[in-house]
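Hi U.,

Before I forget, here's the chain from the pilot set. I'm dumping it here mostly so it's searchable later in email.
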Amino acid sequence: MTRRRSTPWIHKWSRFIIAGIATCGALTTAYLTFEKLTGGQAACVVDAGGKGCNDVLSSPWATVFGQPLALFGLLAYVGMATLALAPLAFKPEKNKQQYQKIQDSTWLLLLSGAIAMTVFSGYLMYLLAFKIQALCPYCLASATFSLSMLVLTIIGRTWEDIGQIFFTAIVVGMITLIGTLGVYNNVNNPNAGQPSTPVPTGQPTQGIGWKIATTSGESEIELARHLKKIGAKKYAAWTCPHCHEQKQLFGKEAVEELDIIECHPEGKNARVDLCQAAGIRAFPTWKINGQELQGVQPLKKLAEVSGYKGPTNFKNFPDYFK
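Structure:
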């Protein structure tokens, strides 16, 4: 008489645990999406440098295709929860073969989704540590959720072909990484096709930002005056490196002529209410003649969009990009 091998408890409950984790992730991203779309501030602690979740949520990386990144995270978590619970809608005793096909296909989709979310979360952790340099418990929680679901998809069932896991991880991981770099290409290099501006060094002055190291020529000053005259506004945050890069292109004197609205609540002369009313989702953001431009803009582009007809021999354009 042969003794029937019992099913490990993790195999019995893995789908439910994955669905539970995905639900937690969905609730977290739903909250962040709501705050982002309504212009609110997420409840969050700040680090020693005065930066926190809202600096991350207001960074250029927090918006994808004009929508909050958290919204795409919400959709991903909802998808994972749906895949985890999908087989429960079918009764195995009616059609065991069909039920097994659904089990196998949803497990493969769960594995692919978990790999993609983990790779993407890993890239966001890199941005958090080296680019944005701010503490964000929501982001850390999301990365933990993604990694946990990946582990559960691997140990939560018996995989007959272990090579399938490695093959799926390589293919999905590479596609996710390439796609992520492509999506953020304009953020990582706002002036695509030209060398990017240097990253500011040193500590920014509290509420003001980094010191502007460049000077302005006649063209920069005339453009700045023109932009202010037509009502163009630049929405920025003193903690935003890209906002500083934009100032560097104008130079110290021209920046004084610009209409810059500070969106960080701890910034000098902050007008958070105006930023929320304007629906600002990334810094810097320009509002010119009814158009919205996100990210660092070459001065020639600002001149073109604003209808500027003055001199365009911008001194910080050819010399600053080296």
